[in-house]
Amino acid sequence: MKSVLTCVFAGVLASLVLAGAGAYAQEAPAAPGRPDSKMIGDWMVRCFPVNNPNPCDVFQELDDQRTRQRVLSLSLAYMPSQDRHLLQITAPLEVSIQKGLTIQTDTFTSPVMKYRMCTREGCFVQIAPDNAMIASLAKSGPDAKVNIVGDNGKSYALKFSLKGFSAAHDDMVSQAKVKAKPAGDAAKP
To answer: Is 168 inside a domain boundary?
Structure first.
């Protein structure tokens, strides 16, 4: 099971890298190598042109208005063959790795999620949350936050929006069910 999740996370990460850091139109047809994407509320639904058991995700990125650097990104994919979600949160560097992070809404607080790795892009949480967590997020809103602790011990709340999350999630799941390729078929054209 662990090796399957490792492969899935690698697929999600590869898909995110394929997406690049460019801006996306409200609704854009997929160009070669680019995802099909559309905005639903504050969430982007993306489906990548790859053979993968989880080719689609919902995505939100928050940038610092002054520096235009990413402060936080959230990507939630769905793997129909296992009825599982895959969540990747990218937090800034200089976080306390040992403290992990939590997601908090008006009615929900996640368990502490541990960082998996840090690169020059940021520090990443990559988990397979249970479906109850996703249902709790879908019922919450409209505002949420990712709580992190800096290396200096100070706590920070990075705010993000849940506006449109439920509808974006449902759209992403229905597309994933149509476009997903089983793990054994992922290497086939």
So the answer is: yes
pTM above 0.90, yes or no: no
Strand partners, 90: 73, 124
Q: Report the alpha-carbon distance of residue 65 to residue 109 in Å, rounded.
A: 27
Residue range 67-117, pLDDT digits in tens: 888 999 999 999 999 999 999 999 999 999 999 999 999 999 999 999 999
Using a 10 angstrom Cβ sphere, with 0-12 exposed, 13-18 middle and 19 or more buried, the burial of residue 104 is middle
Question: What is the enclosing helix (H) or strand (E) of 75?
Answer: strand 70-79
Residue type, 107: T
Alpha-carbon distance values, 44 to 87, 109, 151 (Å): 15, 23, 31
10: domain CATH number is 2.60.40.1880
- Structural domain of 73: 2-183
For residue 189, being part of any structural domain is answered with no
